[in-house]
Amino acid sequence: APRKLSFALTLLAGAIASVMWLSQRPVAATSTYVRAGLSRVGATRSSHRLGGGLRGDLRSQSNFNGLPLMRMTTSSQQKRNLLGRASLSTVNSAAVATPQKVDNSAKAKELLDSVDTIIFDCDGVIWKGDTLIDGIPETLDYLRSQGKTVYFVTNNARKSRAGYKKKFDSLGLQISPEEVLSSSFAAAAYLDKANFKLSGKSVYVIGDVGIGEELDLLGIPWTGGPADMGKTIELKSGYKLEHDSNIGAVICGFDYGINYYKIQYAQLCINENPGCLFIATNLDALTHLTDAQEWAGNGAMVGALKGCTGKEPIVVGKPSPLLIDYLVSKHGLKKDRILMVGDRLDTDIVFGNENGLKSCLTLTGVTSEQKLMSPENKITPDVYVDSINASEDRQQGHTGSKLEHISLHTCTCARVHAESTLIMS
């Protein structure tokens, strides 16, 4: 018995030594780039994030036969996130400094002067549910008066671009249809770029009317969507749910009428139809259905399909480069002169950081200052603000130039002092 115990202890000591040696080895990020079922693996990224909010080039200019490549990660560390939400992890966490408060108009003016275009997320930035956030009309009016170009890019696929134009109108915000882009549009545009219509196949939609409306504009046939709300299955001997073997793509967007029928139908298409694409409009964990609380987002729907298919989706909304590449190509924008403003670290800020834009986090949405400053958070915006309310300070009796209070009210600049290797997870 003593001899067996000694042998066991020797093995245990060897195992511990091996683990310690492996833990000291450098970690590399392995990424899979996906386009219409084709993939390539590789590209370890590293970057310089410099003081003053400037960064080195985090981008890999990735196009595969003209289509933006969707960056999906495969390292074991990243597998621990059930919904596969996009986030940034830093190998050397000490490289990320605590964000510093900017309390003067010079810093705010410097940032605004450094950009020509400002892209706003919508939910949690412009509105919550159907309630407009205070000061938004004044902010937009002022930015336009200063010659800034403004766009709105939302991960919410419930509406089409035309539907969002109506929502802006109902809230008293005057925008042109070309100024708003949604993930419902991104999903349809992705299939159009892939010449999906030539395949003669159809699309199954989990989601609201927005996805279907965008597919209709491109003449891509589809089924599902709101029409499948309320459908049920039968639990009886010999029953099986029949599905269309001609479905060539499943698009999963936010669906407040999600049910077991839809999940089962989608998984049959993905698992049993050869080459069927699995497309997610976004992976947002939470969303703003009302201004009273946060609600489960599309990440919950996508997570259900990932769980029963074992497959990763092609993500077309933020932080995918598809929408920014579309804007840059269509309007001739310069990425280093664009500011991305959003309330989510893992979508909006990653979208800005990973695509070579400046990034600004606003605390009017799902991210609190406590979460931003938490040691566990490794996603750092260039700046963050309490809100983008242009009139808030003036209402409190402050004086000074309008530019001093616009957009960067109580602004903070995030400085990163050292090179860090970033992993998308």
Task: Please characterize this protein's 3D structure.
The chain has 425 residues and is an alpha/beta fold. It is built from 14 helices and 24 strands. The chain has helices spanning 2-23, 76-79, 105-113, 136-145, 161-170, 183-193, 209-217, 260-272, 298-309, 322-331, 345-354, 369-373, 392-395, 402-405, and strands at 31-35, 38-42, 63-64, 67-68, 70-73, 88-90, 100-101, 117-120, 127-128, 131-132, 149-154, 180-182, 202-206, 222-224, 247-252, 277-280, 286-287, 295-296, 314-315, 338-342, 358-362, 383-385, 412-413, 422-424. An 8-stranded mixed beta sheet has the order 7-23-22-21-20-8-11-12, sandwiched between helices. Strand 3 and strand 4 (67-68) form a beta hairpin. The radius of gyration is 23 Å and the shape is globular. 43% of the residues are buried.
Helices and strands in order:
Blueprint: H1 2-23, E1 31-35, E2 38-42, E3 63-64, E4 67-68, E5 70-73, H2 76-79, E6 88-90, E7 100-101, H3 105-113, E8 117-120, E9 127-128, E10 131-132, H4 136-145, E11 149-154, H5 161-170, E12 180-182, H6 183-193, E13 202-206, H7 209-217, E14 222-224, E15 247-252, H8 260-272, E16 277-280, E17 286-287, E18 295-296, H9 298-309, E19 314-315, H10 322-331, E20 338-342, H11 345-354, E21 358-362, H12 369-373, E22 383-385, H13 392-395, H14 402-405, E23 412-413, E24 422-424
Parallel strand pairs: 8-11, 8-20, 11-12, 13-14, 13-15, 15-16, 16-19, 20-21, 21-22
Antiparallel strand pairs: 1-2, 1-5, 3-4, 6-24, 7-23, 9-10, 17-18, 22-23
Helix pairs in contact: 6-7, 8-9
